[in-house]
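To: structure desk
From: M.T.
Subject: fold request, one chain
Message: Could you run this one when you get a chance? Sequence is below, nothing fancy, just the single chain.
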Amino acid sequence: MEGYLEVVLVVLALSAVFTFLSSIFLIRIEKKLGILCKDAHKPYEYYVPCIGGFPLFLGTLLGLIILAFLDFLDVKLVISSVTVMICGLMIGFLDDIYDLKSRWKIILGFIPAIPLVLMGCYKPKPWIPFIGSISLRTLYPLLLLVASTVYLNGANMIDTHNGLLPMYALMVIFFAFLLKISTVFTVEEVVLATLFMVTLLIYLLFNMYPAKLFNGNTGAYLIGSILLLTIVVLRVEFYAITASIPMFLNGFYYITSIKGFLQKEQVDRPTTVDKHGCIHPSRKLYPITFVKLTLLIGGKSFSEKELIKVMYLIYATTSLLGYVICYTLGYS
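Reply: Done. Structure tokens follow.
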């Protein structure tokens, strides 16, 4: 067991280093090519490389391949996981390049779930409080398709400020990991979740305030696909619903407030930034986002750094709440 752990730690270290180095490389390449976007939440001119995601994908891919080669992960699981991530990455990249219409984002969002369904890399027995595990053999694949587009597009929609999306994903996966190791788990589940956490943490270093690399749609959809994988492979569907409350509320209020699916260029910004760098909710009622609600409920403006800390706390709280509910009610 000790030798097993050492090998896994070495693989995780290699993935971390590769994620770090490839992030530095991508930043340099995008700066050289002029692939830069203005950070709208800074009170001064600040431009950042704006198509991320690839370092996170490459670091995770390296870990998955080595772990499969060493028989620490099932080859079928690795193939389906890599395919899911490639689908998410490419959908986001297409969106970055061609600015896809909202309806296409929703339709394409179903695709990452297809490899999981075709390869049978899921257990159609979600756990529900007071009921236990229930069999949904016919319905589960359909719910998986819906969850795919919800998580990919939901992740993209909450990627509003430096570091918010990677931290949100990290919190959801971390407490899912804790739930598994404190109840019932397999080695594959723990290893996969740990790999995701390690590469996300390294990637976060470049995306957190002040961001050196934006996720772009490429990174956002990739992170959404990683969340989908975590939920399905670890079989933590009910936990994920609670942990994802901020994402669900953000999507619900945004879509209902603008009465449909519109391109972001067609919608007024929900927040404004003054010359001192303080972020305020816009005076216009719509659109409504989770960040805007947070500012309104707080009754004050925040600097971007302060707002990010508040959002981090919210993400940690909802994920912890999901863990506590599932653990207390006998998750198995």
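Reply (cont.): The longest helix spans residues 2-33. Let me know if you need anything else for the meeting.
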